[in-house]
Amino acid sequence: MSSTIGAIPSATSSAVNGIRREFERFDRAAWDVASAGPAASNAVVLEISDQARAASSQALGAGLEQGLIDERLAKYSAIANIRTLQTADEMSKELTDLVR
User: How far is CA 8 from the centre of its chain?
Assistant: First the structure.
């Protein structure tokens, strides 16, 4: 039974991995949005990582609309993962208080 429990990722590691994935997703979506429209002469220059650029070019349905949707989804998924971290922290504190 203990080997089964050891294979289950903790809430903290799952949340951290989720946050990392959502930041990568947001980066790809930002590239899609930035590259979808014509460049304006007074546009702000964005620095997009080569990794995000490569991932974006491989994505299906890349474009302004999909990029905006993905940005929003990444934002709310990251918030959910952050709340998972907060809940895990609160539970750890409660457990510590109970043990005392």
Answer: 21
